[in-house]
Design goal:
The protein is an alpha/beta fold. The protein is 47% helix and 18% strand. It is built from 14 helices and 11 strands. Strands 3, 4, 5, 6, 7, 8, 9, 10 and 11 form a 9-stranded mixed sheet that branches. A two-stranded antiparallel sheet has the order 1-2. The radius of gyration is 21 Å and the shape is globular. The relative contact order is 0.11.
């Protein structure tokens, strides 16, 4: 059985409220300088939950300090339950540090950060992310140019050099792409979100552990447009454990498919197929992570090729590579991205 998605403010009503707020902001928050009218820069709240990754956290904070945008406020929420990051955060005088009394999970930590944030925009970062100095100014500029959009997102680059960029067609109304679990380019760190939109869909749900960013994208896409910047403005490491690559995250994918079943029923049938392909691909990767060669991984990759509504040849090639186990799949993946880099 599925449960219906909760009632939300309609897209129409949200946009009307947004236009009203923009007009009010222009009337009350402008200042006269040398005969010209200038909008005050809106504050961006940077919220960083952290859990026993102090060294990476310091690099993340330094990347925020390099932003060519002002003003920003940096909020670090220490989810270790023991103040593990306190000494390292102390070296940054401008960081608001919040220590949780117990480990509550990343979503709860983000909600705690939201409770104290004062910005008109919100940027969530993981504690091993770094952002390009132009990320925030470019995304704010993009949102100012698109009054109907409340979310800006960008591409991502991994430390291996692998780059994922938003496809040209993914902008504006993106509900179907969000329901399809398009995941690589839509993690928390690639998004800059207007606080007013988060207030409508929030608080962030911890029901979908490891896939909470998918839930957030769907809820935001139900009420507002997105604007894409086709540049890799977020840099992410590939080492260590990530909740997004876990059996818990896979279970959350199945929960999301169930929760949004009414929306899938209304959407093009390929939307559900894309989501099923992405969920099965995660399952295959998890099997390969556990064993160098796995017949269950091969079967999951076969399901990916069956469900995927596009790029069938690419998925069949991935299935063939998986026949040679983890090393064969990794070699095939690197070859594929090398070819795509040459085509860009």
């Amino acid at each position: 059985m599925h449960s219906d998605p909760p009632e939300r403010t309609t897209k129409h009503h949200f946009l009307l409220g947004k236009i009203y707020n923009q007009c009010s902001a222009f009337a009350t928050n402008t200042r006269h300088i040398s005969g010209l009218q200038h909008m005050n820069d809106e504050i961006i709240s940077i919220i960083i939950p952290t859990y026993f990754r102090n060294e990476q956290l310091a690099e993340t904070i330094r990347s925020v300090h390099e932003q060519r945008y002002d003003p920003v406020e940096i909020i670090v929420v220490d989810d270790s339950g023991e103040g593990h990051a306190a000494d390292d955060v102390d070296e940054f005088e401008d960081v608001v540090y919040i220590q949780l009394a117990e480990n509550r999970g990343a979503q709860a930590a983000r909600n705690v950060g939201l409770d104290v944030a004062t910005g008109e925009y919100v940027q969530f970062l993981d504690d091993d992310d770094r952002i390009d100095p132009e990320k925030l100014p470019k995304q704010v500029a993009a949102l100012r140019e698109r009054p109907n959009a409340s979310v800006a997102f960008c591409g991502i680059q991994y430390d291996s050099g692998e780059v994922h960029l938003p496809p040209p067609e993914v902008s504006g109304t993106v509900l179907e792409q969000a329901l399809g679990f398009w995941n690589d380019i839509w993690r928390y760190s690639t998004l800059l979100v207007e606080r007013s939109a988060l207030d409508v869909v929030g608080p962030l749900q911890d029901t979908f552990e490891g896939s909470g960013d998918i839930w957030l994208r769907v809820e935001l896409a139900r009420i507002t447009e997105f604007v894409a910047i086709r540049e890799p403005l977020v840099f992410v490491g590939e080492g260590g454990e990530h909740l997004g690559l876990s059996w818990t995250a896979l279970e959350s994918r199945w929960k999301l498919l169930d929760r949004y079943e009414p929306l899938y029923d209304e959407a093009d049938r390929d939307v559900r197929r894309h989501a099923l392909a992405e969920a099965n691909r995660l399952k295959a990767l998890l099997y390969l992570r556990e064993r160098r060669w796995s017949p269950r991984a091969i079967l999951a990759f076969a399901r990916v090729a069956y469900y995927a509504p596009t790029d069938r040849a690419q998925h069949i090639a991935e299935l063939a590579a998986s026949l040679f186990g983890r090393s064969g799949h990794e070699l095939g993946r690197r070859f594929q991205h090398a070819v795509l880099d040459q085509l860009r």
